[in-house]
Design a protein that fits this description.
The complex is a heterodimer of chains A (about 425) and B (about 150).
Chain A: E1 8-9, E2 12-13, H1 14-18, H2 22-25, E3 34-35, H3 46-58, H4 69-89, E4 97-100, H5 103-118, H6 123-126, E5 136-140, H7 149-158, E6 161-165, H8 175-179, E7 186-192, H9 204-214, E8 219-223, H10 235-238, E9 242-246, E10 257-261, H11 263-266, E11 279-282, E12 287-289, H12 303-319, H13 321-340, E13 345-348, E14 359-364, H14 369-378, E15 381-382, E16 384-386, H15 391-397, E17 402-406, H16 413-429
Parallel strand pairs in A: 3-15, 5-6, 5-7, 7-8, 8-9
Antiparallel strand pairs in A: 1-2, 4-10, 9-10, 11-12, 13-14, 14-17, 16-17
Chain B: H1 3-7, H2 10-18, E1 30-36, E2 41-49, E3 56-64, H3 67-80, H4 85-99, H5 109-112, H6 128-145
Antiparallel strand pairs in B: 1-2, 2-3
The complex binds pyridoxal-5'-phosphate.
Chain lengths: ~425, ~150
């Protein structure tokens, strides 16, 4: 059997994998800083850096414009990158992958397209997206602001209502909670496959089935920001209408992300941004748009970033996403076990024994998350403290901030242990009882 | 002295727990709410001035935040209650100068009193706002009251 645990990803050892990442190779420290903030942004392997550089050195030229051979080569590489991403996330057609700046941008493209359709832009084709006053947009209380604020804007523009799926005392929600708020007036259901705060994993296909049964006019929009980089996903298999994720969290470059959409929907959704390269015929006061993906890709595109992102997808594919997930599950289990034994430290999110992703957020009783973060920083641990762009979730939990440790393919068991050990010292440092016998 | 102990001086940890002035204030002349959106720390600070608006008769605050911001509000309470307004504002300015010092220089202990414990914060750019939160609220509340 292939060992998959905190020391391995599939057949490869973490020690070996870390050599792929210049950020770790460069450190000559006896005790290097533990990077436990990959859920915010991940480190990049040489394969990604080299792919960008190789394109820039050999094939840099405009894409989809002009007739030169150089443009042909550049365009091919750009479109091959799209095909790599389509395969990676289980799209049926390369056209279903639209380049975006990041997940936030991709979610805005969907929301703004819906808002535009609601005032008649896009004509009869786009009428299926139009919302009316009194229509309902269902979101969970756990959403990242990136999957909340764009919907607030849609509600303001259309008179549609935001309907929350409430979270429990651990910040989690269930399929039943969601089903209980669905109505025939539900027109959008948006949620994260994996919460960036709680690590809750949502059974997406089950949610889609429930939505189709009870709210047949609803679009299902998936925030896949924390799932695509860490676990196998299958957008077409899930049956979602749209999905969004960022390159920088999946070992890829900044400035690139993906909007996935079912082709027939993308072909009808009004493009939020208009401009060069998106059109068929333009007169002085009208324009007709190309089919997806070109209709959304206005202006000069981030080509080297797309090529870098494709390299990241291939790098992860070579490791196997099942193996990546298993490695991170082992990290979470190890951290949870350690944290559960520390008095005065509470786990936010699914409790030990329940399915969760490779990130763990905690609240330390009596110590503000910023003080926890400062202490951990001093101990050589890079973690995230704050509201993680999820204020409504923290408000629902009655706390202002949490401390989060998150893993990726390069995270070691020793780093998990260091996090637990340092966390165990926090309350003592701040003069609170450790409860130790 | 290790860095972390330099930041979290004993005085700071004590004030973060004891929290002088953490209360409502009956008959306040003005109040001001300050919020730090990056960390969610917040404070509402209230002042009562004398009839001539020259002295701070009473100051109190209510808030939620990290040990640095809460301890700073507590020390502020000790330092400015009963003080002439101009002196209190001068103290706020001196405190600000110390926090911007990046750990350089020797702050005026005579003037700053316990507030000198926050000198170490000046080396932590991300925490300066925490320490300043209550002092900024004081400046704003006094301006409203006058
Ligand atoms: C769940 C989730 N959604 C959306 C985002 C936004 O990603 P980006 O800032 O790359 O657009 C993040 C990242 O912070 C996230 O974790």
């Amino acid at each position: 059997m292939i060992p998959t645990d905190t020391e391995h990803v599939g057949a490869r050892t973490i020690r070996d994998i870390r050599r792929d990442f210049p950020a770790f190779a460069a450190s000559g420290d006896a005790r290097p800083t533990a990077y436990l903030d990959s859920a915010a942004t991940a480190q990049r392997p040489t394969a990604v850096l080299d792919a960008e550089r190789d394109y820039l050195e050999h094939d840099l030229a405009a894409v989809h414009r002009g007739a030169s051979a150089a443009t042909g080569r550049s365009t091919s590489r750009f479109e091959e990158a799209r095909a790599d991403l389509a395969r990676f996330v289980g799209a049926r057609d390369d056209r279903e992958i639209v380049w975006a700046q990041n997940a936030t941008d991709a979610l805005n493209m969907v929301a703004l397209g819906i808002a535009d359709a609601s005032v008649g832009i896009g004509g009869a084709d786009a009428a299926r997206f139009a919302l009316d006053a009194g229509d309902e947009i269902v979101l969970t209380e756990a959403e990242h602001h990136a999957n909340l604020l764009p919907w607030q804007r849609v509600a303001q523009r259309t008179g549609a209502r935001l309907v929350p799926v409430k979270v429990d005392e651990h910040g989690c929600w269930s399929l039943d909670d969601l089903v209980s708020v669905l109505t025939p007036r539900t027109r959008v259901v948006a949620f994260a496959e994996i919460s960036n705060v709680t690590g809750l994993i949502v059974p997406v296909a089950d949610v889609v089935a429930a939505v189709r049964a009870r709210a047949p006019r609803a679009l299902v929009v998936l925030d896949a920001c924390q799932s695509v980089p860490h676990r196998p996903v299958d957008f077409a298999g899930y049956g979602v209408d749209f999905a969004a994720f960022s390159g920088h969290k999946m070992l890829g470059p900044n400035g690139i992300g993906v909007l996935y959409g079912r082709a027939e929907l993308l072909d009808a959704l009004p493009p939020a941004r208009t401009g060069g390269s998106t059109i068929t015929r333009v007169t002085f006061d009208t324009a007709e748009f190309l089919p997806a993906p070109q209709r959304f890709e206005a202006g000069t595109q981030p080509v080297s970033q797309a090529i870098g992102l494709a390299a990241a997808a291939r790098y992860l594919e070579a490791m196997g996403m099942d193996a990546v997930a298993a490695h991170e599950d082992a990290f979470a289990a190890r951290v949870l076990e350690g944290v559960a034994a520390i008095p005065g430290v509470r786990i936010v999110g699914p409790q030990p024994g329940r399915a969760r992703a490779g990130l763990v957020s905690v609240a330390v009783d009596g110590v503000h998350a910023h003080d926890v973060g400062q202490f951990l920083d001093d101990a050589g641990l890079v973690v995230r403290v704050g509201h993680h762009c999820a204020q409504p979730l923290h408000r629902a939990l009655g706390i202002t901030a949490t401390t989060r440790a998150s893993a990726h393919v390069y995270t070691t068991a020793e780093e998990a242990d260091r996090f637990v050990a340092a966390l165990g010292e926090v309350r003592g440092f701040f003069g609170l009882g450790t409860g130790a016998a | 002295m290790a860095n972390l102990e330099g930041l979290y001086q004993e005085i700071i940890l004590d004030h973060a727990k004891a929290r002088h002035g953490d209360a409502p204030l009956e008959g306040a002349d003005a109040e001001h709410h300050e919020f730090n959106p990056t960390c969610g720390d917040e404070i509402t600070l209230r002042v009562k001035l004398d009839g001539a608006h020259e002295r701070i008769d009473a100051v109190a605050w209510q808030g939620d935040g990290c040990s640095i911001s809460m301890a700073s509000a507590s020390v502020l309470t000790d330092l400015v209650a009963g003080r002439p307004v101009d002196e209190a504002l001068g103290l706020a300015e001196e405190f600000r100068t110390m926090l911007r010092s990046k750990g350089e220089g020797v702050p005026d202990e005579e003037l700053l009193g316990d507030a000198i414990a926050f000198h170490g914060v000046s080396k932590y750019v991300m925490r300066i706002k925490c320490a300043m939160l209550s002092w900024v609220a004081l400046e704003a509340a006094v301006a409203k009251a006058r």
